[in-house]
Amino acid sequence: MARHLPLLDDAQRRAFEHPPKWTAAQRKLYCHLPDWAAQVLGSLVTPHSRGGFAVQVSYFQATGRFYPADRFRAADCAYVQQRFRLGPIAWERYDKATRFHHRQLILQQCGVAPFEQVEAAVRAQVMHFARQQLNPTAVFRAAVDTLRARRWEVPIYAALAGVVTDAFRAVEQQLTTHLAALLTPAVRQQLDGLFATAADEPAHSHRPYRLTTLKRSRELMRAAAIRANVQDYAVLQALFGQVYPVVQALDLSEEVVRYYARYVERAQVFQVRQQADKKYLMVLCFVIYQYYQLGDLLTETLQQAVQTHRNAAQRDTQERVYRQQQDTAAQWRQVLDGVVAHGAALAALEHVAFAFDRTNDEKVAALLAWLQTPDVAAFAQVRTCAQRLRKGGAGNASGPYYQVVEERSRALQRRLGDILRRVTYDGPADSPLVQALQHYRARDGQLGSQPPTGFLKPAERAALAAAASPVSLYKALLAGYVADHLKAGKLNLAHLLRYRPFDTYLLDAAAWAAQREELLVRTNLTHLRTPGPFLDALQAQLAAAFAHTFGRLAAGTNPGVKPRAGGGRPRFLTPARPADEEAPPPRPLFPAPGLISLHEALHTVNQACRFTACLEHWSPRHRPPRPADRVFFAAVMAYGCNLGLTRMAHAARHVAQSTLENTVNWYFSLENLRRANDAVIALMGKLPVSRLFQRDPDQTHTSSDGQKYYVTVDSIHATHSYKYFGQDKGIVSYGFLDDRHRLFHSVTISASEREAAYLLDGLLHNDVVESTIHSTDTHGFSEVNFAVTFLIQVAFAPRIQSFQDQQLYAFAGMDVPDLTAHGLAPVKRLDRALIEAQWDTLVRLVASLKHKHVTASTVLRRLNSYS
């Protein structure tokens, strides 16, 4: 057994164990000694002691660590000698005893606890990290950050790596021992069955293991793919009921479950099976996580299928109404002509009936003669024509809509029937829809003669009574209500990732109550500690903004507002940015036209920031030899240029397709790719050319927008957007850019989703680009985003189309001018008492986002969908 887990590779370990490489500006900053250090330096006698002390203080200020003299950087030593006029120094004389004395002195003066005094607390903290996050490298880095934050000394690599390794071995030993005691023979047999084929015969490409068949869900809208997903969900559901109590007893965090589950997804079945001590733990986590994932997929399938069904029904209804209008124009004329003729005949009969110059026998004879005329037979045809018109929808307020829904119901049932029977969505017990779902599942989709209709509207009940196939119409309406209630939060499923009850996404209520102050400090939200001072300052700021803005409007000094000549609503303009006459003339930033290979560009960037080092193997313990950099470059180009691994392997030299696929499988996780992108972003921020694009060095102005892409293959994530794709489907790549032109975050979403739900994901993504002001378009704007960005101290400046139609708010009691005089909607008043009553929940939500306990897109998409 290795002494330490492979936490860092050789290059990363050398970087950790050696002092940082400074620029001239950084060296000048860190080598500036505080007053106490300057006094100590003046009291020292020998040059090597004085020089060693000055260098150690400088390094400690930067890293919180101490280094032996043989690792001092020559440039730093030369700078210290020159700055403090130390003269020639024999650095080899700066021995271990002197360094130990200086270490104690520096720790005492800086108020930093030595590692040996806090080692027990460090081990406890690392043990906590290991229980929450089964990525040893991430735990190692988190431990370093915690040591710096708590003003504890950062030890040498071997000492800290030993603590992390011991913690992981202890956690895994505890988990496996506890698991062995919890697993019953029945559960073991069920889990062992995943390592066999359906026929209990040797596996091959046409007879895979059961575990293999459960790995990949089918993200398609075809009925056959949906049925296959439901079948897998049924298998996982049966397993989930048996293993979930075991997982609860183990108290596994979501990160641990996700880590082991993704390891099983990447690994071959024999690689999982050969780990006798952990295979059950891994498979348990895979079952839990895949059950959640597949439940989300089936729920998303239901939502999209219902929306597609509704859109098609509305479109068919409009087309049918249009055709009916064309086809029945003659029938309408016949009905109208018949009514006019019948009216004239009735007037003539009335004249005969009330004629005083005729006898009753003459009147009866005239009536009988009229009944034998062709006009009466023609009017009978008018009645038949009117009945046909009414049956076709002319007499129905909703037209033929429900008839179309009924006709299209069969296709919807083929997609969603199994989902509604298998996925048990929860809701209030007295909800009519919940009762209808329970009736539907209890009868396995067979409704019976009197299914519950309490959840339907009166018009829908009437349409159901008049339907040719009430069962088909009922099932389509039931699916629509389930989709609506899921979106509105009236139906939930506790064991999902995206459709859980809202409170389950936030930090645990008990943990929040116990650690509220610590979490506020850790997430830099101490300004939200109490609502009173915060809301007072906001109210004063808002009142000043109203007075300033509308004072300029009234005075006519706002260049963005132009009054109309004839009065009425003024015109709102975006004034042009004035030209900077003192700016130097533009000059080319790049060399003359030439060809630079993409491989050379990637190699050059990698030499400067080592982004390939961020692509770490998924397994923390058994890591094979690392692939060459050219393999990583080939994989990046294969995906970045949309070539695919097969074509890239054929085009690249000395890169086998199997090597490329294995590298992507084990090294290209989403977390690794984001860390690699952050490394490139950090490098771009250090380049002097990037500062040429920045308007204000004291601000970081970021922006976000979506780019639309066609998708020609069947995918549940591709949806219709007529404005951009016409009759085709597509997706949106939502990207974030700062004023230095650094693309620091991107996410791919469905074309039918609003970008506003994903805006905060980019702002809270990392610490490399910390936005101070953010702009987006109307599609990325929402009132919730205004609120949350203000709470996290980011100025939100969206470019809103027709912003004058947006609702403005003010606190009750504020003196607000008449907005209607400026063509704006009247102001609405904020309920401060309600805000203060919900303040702790608001702060808990923001802390959950900043703590990265949940992504903003997940929780805000759920919150915004509520009724």
Automatic annotation (TrEMBL):
One of its GO terms (biological process) is DNA transposition. InterPro entries: DUF4158 (IPR025296), Tn3_Tnp_DDE_dom (IPR002513). Residues 557-586 are annotated as: Disordered. GO terms for molecular function: transposase activity. It comes from the Bacteria. Residues 601-867 form the Tn3 transposase DDE domain. Residues 7-166 form the DUF4158 domain. This is Tn3 family transposase.
